[in-house]
Amino acid sequence: MSQSTRLGRATLTRVVEHGFMVPSTMFAQTPPEAWADNADLLVPTFYDPEADRWRVSIQTWVLEVDGLTVLVDTGVGNDRERPHIPGLANLDTSFLASLAAAGFEPADVDIVINTHLHTDHVGWNTNRVNGSWVPTFPNARYLVPEADYRHFSPDGLGDDEGARVVFSDSVLPIADQMELWSQDLVLSESLRLRAAPGHTPGSSVLWLDAGKPAVFVGDLTHCPVQIPRPDDPCGFDVDARAAAATRHRVFTEAARARATVIPAHYPGHGGATIVARGDRFEVDDWLEIDAI
User: Fold this and answer.
1) Model pLDDT, residue 155
2) With bands split at pLDDT 50, 70 and 90, how would you rate the model's confidence at 110?
3) What does each C-alpha distance from 131 to 192, 204, 232, 280, 291 come to in angstroms?
4) What is the spatial distance between Cα 244 and Cα 231, in angstroms, rounded to a whole number?
5) Could you report the per-residue pLDDT of 242-288, keeping only the tens digit for each?
6) Domains of the chain: which residue ranges?
7) By C-alpha distance, which of 291, 288, 263, 292 is closest to 120?
8) Which residues 6+ apart lie within 8 Å of 249 measured at CB?
9) Predicted local confidence at residue 2, as pLDDT
């Protein structure tokens, strides 16, 4: 199964950590008939109508471009206490072995991008060594959106015990390699980070333009039901109205640029080029990578 493809001068590799199913009630504002109306898009890869559940893939995207090796999001991680999401607690996955099998050792990574600071995007920032959490990627710059750092830091969390635990084991230990940024950050000739608030205050997207454009959108969309229905929020959105506005903006920009939209959690081919049809969007073609 090929989990790599070319995007112009860039090479893109998918490394899968974990997969599971989530009830459609996570999309509380998506009416039941919308899942059936979009069955051609969703079934069977993204949605199981008998179970009324949609499929999630937790994965890391690895970009090789401009002489850099860049990881986009780092998944859940092993051996974590996750009181707020028990299904992601104390995992024992082969993520690092899968990364090595794809040709990447931790020391090879130049940049780690956390599109936002939710638990399933920061976990492999660190690894437990002799009882302590240490950076998994010893030579990498960890790029963290400042708005999320302030939102999820202990001073900003209130009584959110789960987020405090995530911050403690997956964010604080990378402090010496961390770079906080806001609004726009140019990483190289082909890569640029841009703010994309809504899902979290600091949610961000990574634009790639190396001859065949793409945009890595994190949790801007969780499931392809949001492509024809971009106003539909996910239950994890901090500001659903802002997330919908950002989704419209990024989808419109991607459609105009013919850029492949690559979310964090799509199974199947992992991403797609989209076209605008009035106030909705449609899939034009899927990313050229084997489906999972």
Assistant:
1) 81
2) very high
3) 36, 32, 42, 49, 37
4) 5
5) 999 999 999 999 999 999 999 999 999 999 999 998 888 999 999 99
6) 4-286
7) 263
8) none
9) 60
Q: What is the CB-side half-sphere exposure of residue 18 using CA atoms within 13 A?
A: 19
Whole-model pTM over 0.70: yes
Give the CATH fold of the 4-286 domain.
Metallo-beta-lactamase; Chain A (3.60.15)
What DSSP string describes 73-141? -----SS---TT-GGGTT----HHHHHHHTT--GGG--EEE-SS-SHHHHGGGEEEETTEEEESSTT-E
Q: Mean pLDDT, to the nearest integer, of 232-250?
A: 96
Pairing of strands 260-263, 214-218: parallel
User: What is the model's pLDDT at position 215?
Assistant: 98
Give residues with Cβ within 8 angstroms of 272, minimum separation 6: 224, 227, 260, 261, 283, 284, 285, 286, 287
Backbone φ and ψ for 42, nearest 5 degrees, come out as: -100, -35
Structure tokens that stand for 253 in this block: 């920009």
- The reported pLDDT for the residue numbered 157 is 67
Mean pLDDT of 38-66: 97
Closest CA to 99 of 60, 73, 138: 60
- Strands, DSSP E only, in the chain? 4-7, 10-23, 47-48, 53-65, 68-72, 111-113, 126-129, 132-135, 141-145, 178-181, 184-186, 191-195, 204-208, 214-218, 260-263, 272-277, 280-286
Give 230's contacts (C-beta < 8 A, 6+ positions apart): 244, 247, 248, 251, 279, 280, 281
